[in-house]
Amino acid sequence: MKSIVNRVLVVMMVGALTSVVAFAKTQRQRVTFDNDMKVNGTLVKKGTYDIKFDDETGQLSIVKNGKTVAQAMTRVEARVKKANDFQLRSTINGDETQLVGVTFGGSDKDVLITSGGAVTTGSN
After folding, report:
1. What residues form DSSP beta bridges with 39?
2. Which residues of 11-36 are buried (b: 16+ CB within 10 A; e: fewer)?
3. Residue 62 CB burial class (10 angstroms; 0-12, 13-18, ≥19)
4. Angle value at C-alpha 96, between 91 and 99, nearest 5 degrees
5. CA-CA distance, 38 to 15, in Å (whole number)?
């Protein structure tokens, strides 16, 4: 009898943990940077990367070949309407381009890097 109760508890715990993971949502988009870009102080060389956003932790990651090359903490702002497609937002200061935010296609939220500045590129 005791082993049956233990098994039921284990099944319930696994179900609870699985449901928590199901609520976490990670968005991903493949993007090509035509120029070098700084992300939260880290230089990201031009090339093709995956951009991942974990809405549970608020962390934006730039990944190449499975390796994270830059990360930044973000805040999320509501949009008036859903975005039609993926959008990058950046600022240019001299010869340096800084990523300040992204919007994923179909999303009603903008993901903004918390240390970013004014937006000079991108569209809504």
Report:
1. 42
2. eeeeeeeeeeeeeeeebebeeebeee
3. buried
4. 40
5. 41
pTM of the predicted structure, to 2 decimals: 0.70
Q: Who contacts 4 (Cβ-Cβ below 8 Å, separation ≥6)?
A: none
Which residues in the chain show pLDDT less than 50? Answer: 19-22, 116-124
Place of tokens 């199901």: 22
Tell me the pLDDT tens digit for each residue of 42-57: 999 999 999 999 989 9
Burial class of residue 99, CB neighbours in 10 A (0-12, 13-18, 19+): buried
DSSP assignment of the chain equals -HHHHHHHHHHHHHHHHHHHHHH--EEEEEEEESS-EEETTEEE-SEEEEEEEETTTTEEEEEETTEEEEEEEEEEEE-SS--SS-EEEEEEETTEEEEEEEE-TT-SEEEEETT-----S---
